[in-house]
User: Fold this.
Amino acid sequence: MALDSLFLHETKKRMISELLDKYINENSSEEDNNLKELYRETQLKVLMPHMCSGHLQGQLLYLLSKISRCKNILEIGTFTGYATICMAKGMLENGIVDTIDINRELEDVCQKYFEKCGVKEQIRMHIGKATEIIPTLDKKYDLVFIDADKANYAIYFDLVFDKVSAGGLIIADNILWKGEVVNEKKSKDCEAMHQYNLKIKNDSRVESIILSLRDGLNIARKK
Ligand SMILES: C[S@@+](CC[C@H](N)C(=O)[O-])C[C@H]1O[C@@H](n2cnc3c(N)ncnc32)[C@H](O)[C@@H]1O
Assistant:
């Protein structure tokens, strides 16, 4: 294809994709006002704000937590707590979300919005390295959301597997790595995402699907 028509083709593709994103946003359930505020505060005040789940992914996690009637949830990678709140809102009353982050500086903003969103009592924040904290958690989880350092995704899966109830979900974020997973040459983090996807596909103990929502989610259900 000539360069100028390739450019037009790509521009048109991008415009369609932006219009579709807008359509999907406008025609899914409205974002809660406190979550809107948290998203905005994250964008304005926190380093690497793109890491925040945001409305559509948050809404999916909320619905999965609700449909699965989750009682115990584990999140690896809290950041500013957007997904934590969505999952807590979806779970059964008296359910608990254990959420782990290595960065203590994010705790204040998290606690502020846990309170504002009325889910403070349902969330236990654990500060430290996930590989050290997970083995100390003695519970069965209905849903695990893996969303921290990419190199450790496979290790997190192995560490949590026996703690997940039969029928429980293990959801991993960023597994398409902005589309880079299809490239022959991959960055280190992208290769880790690719290896994670292969590992899940080849694990007969789970059934799974990859969704291309946002940066890609790998959803595995323990048989
Ligand atoms: C992509 S953000 C999480 C986004 C959040 N789940 C959301 O949906 O908005 C990744 C987080 O993982 C944390 N993290 C990175 N390495 C970690 C580790 N080894 N143990 C625990 N947390 C870690 C980072 O501090 C960061 O806040």
Observations:
- The helical segments are 3-26, 33-45, 55-67, 82-90, 107-116, 130-133, 153-161, 188-201.
